[in-house]
TrEMBL record:
Originating species: Mycolicibacterium chubuense
Entry's EC annotation: 2.4.-.-
EC class name: transferase
GO function terms (MF aspect): glycosyltransferase activity
Domain Glycosyltransferase 2-like: from-to ranges: 1-107
Keyword Glycosyltransferase recorded: yes
SUPFAM superfamilies: Nucleotide-diphospho-sugar transferases (SSF53448)
Protein name: Putative glycosyltransferase EpsE
Keywords: Glycosyltransferase, Transferase
Gene name for this UniProt entry: epsE_1
Classification lineage: Bacteria, Bacillati, Actinomycetota, Actinomycetes, Mycobacteriales
Length: 330
């Protein structure tokens, strides 16, 4: 577990590890920025010999995870963010799967998503739902590279045998142009490793406003790293053709193009907005993309005004539906 700027959440994360129904785990907590408050919070748990604290200068997520992996003594390695939560049966379920067969190299799973702060807007149903996965994973067979290209990779909170982690260089600090967890899953599948995926939601991920995937200023870089992860890993492993036809890649390019169109329009660059909208339509022939293309050519000023109003109305409707669902009716 690498920790930076999550002093408000890290205790709950550690508590979720302590609550595991399987108890033969080890938690390497890396204070990845020299925060005295963070060290003090984690320090309260150090009487438990299963919890180890490492303090270092901020070396980013890759440097933090690598330091934890180097210090770990277990047979399996699992990445945990310091604001996420494990469900009590995580270690038991994942451990049982990877120990069923010594030929199984890694095990992934689904997870619940929740907003923090909770403004009443319902989050996506699950991690798999958020990435548009259509099929239910079958843990009785190994996942394939084609499956990952088409459906997306499992949640980053997965378990890897140490030797598999080492072969694929884990969260390599020298590789900064990819999303390390995505690259790791893809590398394992491309190499023919036996990767199993449980359909169960065994962890909870906190969606914060400053998360890379939600923060407008960081979303483009995040999407670029995702795309590069797919392209780089497949090229390195000499996988068979068809990458350009990957549904997951098309979906990422589609969403990126629509976001670029929106940002360009709000910045007053109508030509760039039109080009991005056409790019989105080329990736996916949806009514949404077609409507944006048409509106940008007919009345871009009206579209600029409609967008924030539409978002506000949609959030209001979603919050109302969410509250009704919680109490069972109006």
């Amino acid at each position: 577990m690498t920790a930076y700027g999550t002093e408000r959440f890290v205790a709950a994360t550690i508590d979720s590890v302590l609550a595991q129904t399987r108890t033969d785990w080890e938690l390497i907590a890396v204070d990845n920025g020299g925060s005295d408050e963070m060290a003090a919070i984690i320090g309260r748990y150090l009487p438990d010999p299963r919890i180890i604290l490492i303090r270092q200068e901020n070396r980013g997520i890759r440097g933090g995870v690598t330091a934890a992996a180097d210090a770990a003594t277990g047979r399996y390695l699992c990445v945990l963010n310091s604001d996420d939560l494990l469900l009590p049966e995580y270690c038991e379920r994942v451990g049982a799967m990877i120990e069923t067969d010594p030929g199984i190299d890694a095990v992934g799973c689904d997870g619940e998503l929740f907003y923090d702060p909770d403004d009443g807007t319902p989050p996506p149903k699950s991690y798999f739902a958020s990435i548009g996965r259509r099929s239910v994973p079958d843990p009785s067979r190994a996942a394939t590279l084609d499956e990952f290209l088409d459906e997306g990779v499992p949640l980053y909170i997965g378990a890897f045998r140490r030797e598999v982690w080492d072969v694929h260089r884990g969260f390599d600090p020298a590789t900064t142009d990819v999303e390390p967890d995505v690259a790791l899953w893809l590398s394992a599948a491309a190499a023919g490793d036996d990767v199993r995926v449980l359909p169960d939601r065994l962890a909870r991920m906190r969606l914060r406003p400053d998360s890379a995937s939600r923060h407008p200023a960081r979303a483009d870089d995040f999407q670029e790293r995702l795309l590069h992860s797919f392209h780089t890993v497949v090229a390195q492993q000499h996988a068979r053709g068809g990458l350009a036809e990957s549904r997951a890649l098309r979906e990422m390019r589609y969403e990126r193009a629509l976001r670029t169109a929106r940002c360009s329009l709000l910045a007053g660059d109508v030509d760039a907005a039109r080009k991005a909208a056409r790019d989105a339509y080329r990736e996916r022939h949806t009514l949404r993309a077609a409507a944006v293309v048409a509106a940008l050519h007919i009345s871009p000023d009206a579209l600029r005004w409609v967008h924030p109003v539409k978002n506000t109305a949609q959030r209001t409707i979603e919050r109302a539906r969410w509250r009704i669902s919680r109490v069972g009716g109006p």
